Amino acid sequence: MRVGSGLQRAQRFMMLATGLYRASHLTAGFAAVLRKAPGEVLPWAVFGGILASSVWLYGNAYARGWFDRRWVWADVLVTGCSVPLLVCLATGARSGGGWVPGGAEVAVYGWLFLLGGSVSAAAGVALAPRPAVGAVLILLGTTPAAYLWVIGPEAAPGSALVGHLNSVVSSAVMARVFWWYLRRQGTQLDEAKERALVAEAARARQAERIAHHRALHDTVLATLTTIAAGRVDANTPLVRERCGREAAYLRRLIQREHDPEAAGAEAAEVAVGTALEEAVHSAECLGLKVTAQYHELPAVPGPVATALAAAVSEALNNVRCHAATGQAFLTAVGEGEGVSVTVVDRGAGFDPGAPRGGTPDGSGSGLRRSIHARLAGIGGASEVDSAPGEGTSVRLRWPA
Question: Cβ distance 83 to 119 under 8 Å?
Fold first, then answer.
């Protein structure tokens, strides 16, 4: 059973509830012995023995996480049956072996009959249905004999005896019903948590796939498209360098395993200028001339720097593939703890409101997925300003 699960919390509650029920009976016993027989040994010995057995039962249950059925049965047979009967025999022998109708013994030991309720409550919770019924029947057979022995058949009111019997039965039944309800609710809570974890894992896998698709779109696919279109010579050192980096990226993607230390390093703050410069260098490997300027750039979280660099890479890919110009201008400026990055070209431009299918993969989704979605995912924002014949400006901001 998982620590902190709904079922475990239900068990803890039932142990606490039945333990408090037993504590209330022990409190009544302590008050009775202290008030009526403060100097006698037997009443204190009886109280101390029951207190010790109760502490053992519930202490063991809390240590294990639930009741041990062996100790519950011991509680039924000793605390609920044997101790009251032995006390009755002892008090009867001390009184000459006869009945003791309502004397001092009743005031001192009468609290023992309360224990039947808390004993049956623990049995109703911890035992299976049939053993629990058997435990209650044993208690019902013991209580009348002990009660009549101490009180006496003439002094014992029938309503009091019926009340004791009813306490034994109702305590077991109510504890059983409460435990059934709490166990059911705890199990449903655990199942709901399990479904939520499965759904969250699926969302995480989907997000990871989307991130990989974006990365492949911005790197490997852009490189292959450029080479296939004959825009660059695949044998030049710069193109080969870029191809080597992207081949290494593909190998890491295939062999990737979960690495907590790598995840922590990714979350650490990094210099955003370094990440942007890598994107610029990657674009220049495919023949695009980029004039870059950086001013007072702050350190930002790793995922932010990665997303900004990937968005810049996509913007530069669009310039190289669609702007009909070989030059782009990048400006990155620190704004307090934030960053503003602008990529501008003086190329052909386009109508941002018109449907486009000219992205490198032919899907028309480069701006939406690789720029807008990336910035939104890190709490940033992006704007694209363009018009036919007027060039294009892409502005990235983090935070938004």
Answer: no
DSSP type of residue 382: E
Where is 193: in which H helix or E strand? helix 158-218
How many whole angstroms separate alpha carbon 312 and alpha carbon 280? 8
Strands 299-301 and 338-345: unpaired
Beta bridge partners of 392: 345, 386
What is the percent of the chain with per-residue pLDDT over 90, rounded to a whole number? 28
Dig out the tokens for 333 from the structure: 């400026």
Q: What's the rounded Cα separation, in Å, for the pair 296 and 206?
A: 36
83, amino acid identity: V
Q: Tell which residue, 244, 246, 239, has the closest CA to residue 287.
A: 239
Q: What is the mean pLDDT of the chain?
A: 80
Residue with tokens 């000793």: 78
**How many CB atoms within 10 Å of residue 349?**
19
Cα separations in angstroms, 307 against 212, 218, 338, 382, 399: 12, 12, 14, 12, 12
Asked if 14 and 62 touch (Cβ cutoff 8 Å), the reply is no
Please, which residues have CB within 8 angstroms of residue 88's CB and are 6 or more apart in sequence? 145, 146, 149, 150
pLDDT over 90 (residue 153)? no
* Nearest in space to 50 (alpha carbons), one of 90, 14, 93, 81: 81
* Residue whose token pair is 């201008």: 329
Instruction: State pLDDT tens for residues 222-273.
Output: 777 777 777 777 777 777 777 776 776 666 566 555 444 444 444 456 678 8
pTM summary value: 0.55
Instruction: Name the token pair of 330.
Output: 């990048």
Residue listed under structure tokens 């019924």: 133
In a 13 Å sphere around the CA of 284, the CA atoms on its Cβ side amount to: 12
Mean pLDDT of 37-61: 91
- Rounded distance, CA 103 to CA 90, Å? 14
Phi/psi for 331 (5° steps) reads -130, 125
C-alpha closest to that of 20 among 136, 126, 118 = 118
Query: CA-CA distance, 218 to 374, in Å (whole number)?
Result: 12
CB 246: neighbour CB atoms within 10 A? 19
Query: Tokens at residue 255, please?
Result: 């062999």
Cα–Cα distance, 62 to 18 (Å, whole number): 12
